[in-house]
Fold:
Amino acid sequence: MRRVALHSLSIVLLLACIRTPAAAQEIPEAAAPDAPAPPPPVASVLIAVNADDAEVRVDGEPVGRSPLAPLQLSLGRHVVSVSRPGFRPGSRSIELDADGARLDFALEFDPEQAAQLEPEPEAEDAVSGGPDWYRRWYVWAGAGGALLLGAVIIGVAASSGGGPAGYPLPPIQP
Amino acid sequence: MTRMNDNSRGVLPWLLLALALPALGCGGDGPEPFTLRLIADDGSTPSGPGNAIILAAVDKIQVSITPDRAMGNTFDPLMPRLFDGGDVETRVSAAGEWVITLNRAYIEDHAFTQGTTFAVDVPLIARDTTDDPSVRDPTLRVRFQRQGEFIGFTERRLVWPVVAGEVLPVTVFCEDATRFQCLNSAP
Structure:
């Protein structure tokens, strides 16, 4: 009986020796006082807007312009707002859980606001230094074509008409 | 739509201008010519030989202006120039006289009835309008030709400088020696 107990103690000690390195590594990790806190749980949020280039804010902070890739937000309550000039802004509050969420914003067009934003053509021309029709290629193509047609008409008239108004008579040299 | 209308409104004046310029070019007559009206004698001119010239007898007209050589007047040398598809040629001869030759096609196209005979107008654009006293009135000669032969002729002083817009009637006479040719209508 005494021999059995001795063997058992040896086995226990041997097992303890074998496990000692791993245990030595785990202990400092677990006991380190300045280790970073585990990241808070997040979830994916897809914010879809019916208009591109709308500014998206989460909790008042701008996160980008639509269309946006899914955002990773911490779990909990958030306020998402979307705005774009010419449209009525939208805002919504969500309670985000681990399953994530999708928010669809359908901004409504605001004609009055759009009218204030879009300058009158004349005003735009004045800002840019003049009307923009002269930058159109077809304007110059048309004018050039008309001039070419006129030149052809003159040429035909000169060649098939009644000839010159008169034949040149040179001066007499004294 | 508003923008398109604005563009059209801007383009239209340019297109109209582009079309108007050639129209102006077509409508303008250029400088007013001095016109020699060559009148074939119908035989009734008191100072003439009394022989008529018919249109069909004339296949070429040559008009020459000869400066007063005694005064040292001359035309600058001028290479032959063709007008009206070759129906009209102008040149300055070696003798220093300016010559314009009208062929049969020009005569047929421009001849018109003048009383009992026919006439042909020759419009000239004079580049010399200064009244330089050292330039004397040149001599104007007109020759009607038929198959290389002179059948009608006239010669007179031409008041120089010629006056734009003026029409100078010049009667061309047929001498007795060629009176039959002047009535020959055979081609």
Observations:
- Chain B has two domains: 1-30, 31-183.
- Chain B touches chain A through 52 residues (CB under 8 Å).
- Chain B has a mean pLDDT of 85.
- The first strand of chain B starts at residue 34 and ends at 40.
